[in-house]
Amino acid sequence: MTAEMRFFNRIAEIYDLLQKSLNADGRFSDENAMNEVNRWAEVEPRDQYTPDYYYLLNVCYGPWVEERQKRVWLRAYKSFKQKYNGDLTLVPGEENLTLPFRWQVQHIHKLTTFLKAKGLSFQQFLVSLKGRTGLQVRDEFRNVLNAVSTKVISTFIRDYLNLDAFPIDSRVDRILSYLGLPRDEDMMVSLCQSNKVNPKELNRMLYHYYGKNCTSTEACPHCILLEHCYYGWLSRS
Questions:
Q1: Which residue, among 135, 196, 136, has the nearest Cα to 165 in the 3D structure?
Q2: Which long-range contacts (CB under 8 A, 24 or more apart) does 67-75 make?
Q3: Domain carrying residue 116
Q4: What are phi and psi of 50, to 5 degrees?
Q5: What's the rounded Cα separation, in Å, for the pair 54 and 108?
Q6: 2: pLDDT confidence band, cut at 50, 70 and 90?
Q7: Structurally, how many domains does the chain consist of?
Q8: Is residue 182 a contact partner of residue 4, using CB atoms and an 8 Å limit?
Q9: Would the pLDDT of 237 be above 60?
């Protein structure tokens, strides 16, 4: 077996291990992705048909523990709903929507500026992207926003648009490194597709698995991914 084949097989093996351990109930499946998002984010039923809310939600995911992420989101959700009825094109200037970081405010501002200039609602902009792959949609967003990081964009594409994407935040970046997998979204999507692995599900499971098991070495001896993990092997030596 070539080194390339072993590399490919490792992705399939890791995916299968995570599926059996985490996804027996389908929690991380594409079919349940938005149900999980709505449950966590407490999005009201009548707002669940408006993509503007979900894009703001993804901007609210920051480098914090989950509890703070939720507080930031719920404040922004309330402000966005009350002031602008969930319509990004109504947000004026650099309105901060209670967002704590400058990059978040600028992210929303760049998108609203683009939509207003084009005379499009956010929904209309998304319709104009139909027929493109997840990575092509990501690149269109990146051009519009002049974005360096695409984590926010790719998470929205993965869950709301249900297109193949592999957002890489600090958690996913670390676990990919531990497992010897590419820390590159395009490469991970390509490798998953080549091995008939669902990149969206693998991405969700890796994010969750890192948060529950990889923040210390105490869980390493019992880790289901130990045989694939460079860091785990080092912790045993």
A1: 135
A2: 70/40, 70/41, 72/98, 72/99, 72/100, 73/41, 74/42
A3: 3-236
A4: -115, 110
A5: 12
A6: very low
A7: 1
A8: no
A9: no
